[in-house]
Specification:
Order of helices and strands: HHEHEEEHHEHEHEEEEEEEHEHHEEE
Distance between the termini: 112 Å
Number of strands: 17
Family: Belongs to the CD36 family.
Strand order of the largest sheet: 1-2-3-8-9
Organism: Dreissena polymorpha (Zebra mussel)
Shape: globular
Number of domains: 1
Membrane topology: Multi-pass membrane protein
Structural class: alpha+beta
Oligomer: single chain
Pfam families: CD36
Helix content: 10-25%
Subcellular location: Cell membrane; Membrane, Caveola
Length: about 400
């Protein structure tokens, strides 16, 4: 039996409205289904698809190191002229990060250590570079000793000065790149170790001397099982929810993730945080722009806001990072002397972005040879916003030795 035209129109309208209503109902249902699928994928548990990625990331990770060679050591030390710095690099290492001693806890967290190993890759390093290249740079033994003893009596400092001369220790030294980074045995440290083994516990010293084939501590992070928006967020580091390196509660807070995995469904106005044990603090990140991975995946790039680099006058929150209290470095520098004191023997050291990017201009003007460039020297974190996976990252850091005249020492 054929339908009349008006009847067909009515049926079509009815079907259309039904499909429209059904579609409106299905959209949130489908979104819910997709979200639940994402959550099952990214939650940290042994049977989740992301577990292998989290435990032993398959993506290539590289450590690229550059050295600043002091090309005018005599004029710098004896005549007080600005040091001329020649940047050389990169020295490229493949890095592998493997989590182990993994223990899932009843409160929706997982505890682990992460072993990091580095292997030199000649073909990815600068042309003609070798780990045996010799550089002129600050002598960590010399400056560690003076920094540890600068509050002692003048006679003690003068005695140390005589010891440094006897053992041929000077403000600057020449050493192979491999020894500067991974460590070398120092005869003067061998003597100080015998005098005070509690502080000078070894005669071995290097900027990364305890970094290869080691872990940086015990992490406890949320798995996302009980609250997906806490996924990857650090609950405790070395058994504590707070650090003890800084002078305020806010500065000692451990915020964010370890930079591997974070909460999904990020809005663009999210302020991300990544905790870095290298500088003993959490670093904020703010959305900068859309980028794409090499596979064409759309990512959101986060960079550190300049407010995190400001001095205590410009940003009072940063006063907590002044150590000792009220002893503040200029903008852009982070004092890690206490943070890395055990490894560096109290070496007066500070980190910054490479070439003093976004730092107080006086640091850049104190040397010759640096050229800060945001494209080359800014730290970036590229996140797939729906899953929270970090698919690309460039952590850029410069380690500086803070040199200053010492009383009663020639």
């Amino acid at each position: 039996m054929a339908c009349k035209p008006k009847t067909r129109i009515a049926v079509a309208c009815g079907v259309g409205w039904f499909l429209l209503i059904l579609g409106a109902c299905l959209i949130p249902i489908l979104e819910w289904v997709v979200k639940k699928k994402v959550e099952r994928t990214v939650i940290i548990r042994t049977d989740s698809p992301v577990y292998a990625f989290w435990q032993d990331p398959p993506v290539p990770i590289y450590l690229q190191l550059y050295m600043f060679n002091v090309t005018n050591p005599i004029e710098f030390i004896q005549e007080g002229k600005r040091p001329f710095l020649q940047e050389v690099g990169p020295y490229t290492y493949s890095e592998r990060r493997v989590k182990y001693d993994i223990k899932f806890n009843p409160n929706g967290t997982v505890t682990y250590r992460q072993n990091r190993t580095f292997q030199f890759i000649l073909e990815k390093s600068g042309k003609g570079l070798s780990e045996d290249d010799i550089y002129c740079t600050a002598n960590p033994v010399y400056w560690s000793l003076y920094n540890a003893l600068k509050y002692e009596y003048p006679l003690v400092r003068e005695t140390i000065y005589i010891a440094t001369q006897l053992f041929d220790e000077h403000p600057l030294m020449y050493r192979p790149f491999k020894e500067l980074i991974w460590g070398y045995h120092d005869p003067l440290l061998n003597v100080t170790k015998a005098i005070d083994p509690k502080w000078f516990y070894t005669d071995f010293i290097g900027f990364f001397m305890n970094k290869n084939n080691t872990n940086d501590g015990v992490y406890t992070v949320f798995t996302g099982e009980t609250d997906i928006m806490k996924l990857g967020t650090i609950d405790k580091y070395n058994g504590s929810s707070y650090l003890n390196f800084w002078s305020t509660v806010w500065a000692n807070m451990i915020n964010g993730t370890d930079g591997t995995l974070g909460p999904p469904y990020l809005p663009k106005d999210t302020v991300t945080h990544v905790f870095s044990s290298d500088i003993c603090r959490s670093v904020p990140g703010m959305y900068s722009r859309d980028v794409s991975s090499s596979q064409g995946i759309k990512l959101w790039r986060f960079i550190g806001p300049t407010s995190s680099l400001q001095n205590a006058t410009e940003n009072p929150d940063n006063a907590g990072f002044c150590t000792p209290k009220d002893n503040c470095l200029g903008a852009g520098l982070n004092n890690i002397t206490n943070c890395q004191g055990v490894d560096f023997f109290n070496l007066p050291s500070a980190t910054s972005l490479p070439h003093f990017l976004h730092a107080d201009p006086r640091y850049l003007h104190a040397v010759v040879g640096l050229s800060p460039n945001e494209k080359l020297h800014e730290t970036t974190l590229d996140i797939e916003p729906y899953t929270g996976l970090v698919l690309q990252a460039n952590k850029r850091l410069q380690v500086n030795v803070h040199l200053e005249p010492i009383a009663n020492v020639p």
